[in-house]
Structures are given as C-alpha cells and as structure tokens.
Predict the structure.
Amino acid sequence: MSLAHSPAAGYNSPVPPVSQTIRIKVLLFGRLKELTGHGEDSAEIADAATIEQLFALYAARHPELAKYRTSVVASRNQEFAAWDTPLRSGDEVAFLPPVSGG
C-alpha cells in the first residue's frame, strides 16, 4: 500500500471560505427603543455586512421597525453613516428615529 498522495484522495482541494461573523454594539433611540424593548443590544452579523443589513436583521425580529426605515438615520462609531457602510468587529451602530418638537 502506497502512502503517496493521489489526486483522487482530495488532499489540498479547495475549501470554500468560511463566513466570519462579527459582533456589533447596537443602540436604539426613541420609538425604536420602545418597539424593541431595549435601548442597547449586541448583534452577530456577517463580516462586512452593511448598516442596512443590520437594520433588516432587527426589522425581521421586530416587524414594526420596517415602517420607520425611510425616516431613520444611522450612525457608526458616533458619526452619521450611509446605509451601505460596511461594518467591522467592535463597531457601534445607533439608529435614530425622526425627532419632532419645536
């Protein structure tokens, strides 16, 4: 019996990349806090997921959030951010609903 590598053995065959997850700190304010029942949370999401995808994760858990999407502003690490901003491990994302008053 030979110990030599044979191509059929499958050694060193390409392995599909493993999707890494990252942990994000999430802050919810105003009506969003009321709807979810908490103002601070953490979420695990795929590495390089966007703020939009993070919000969609929360909207899936709390469907009432979805109707606020067009008026919510997001920030990443205390700076306003576009919805297509990719996230990195340790980021803090805040979702801020519209504020009314005078």
In short: The domain at 21-96 is CATH 3.10.20.30 (Ubiquitin-like (UB roll)). The mean pLDDT is 87.
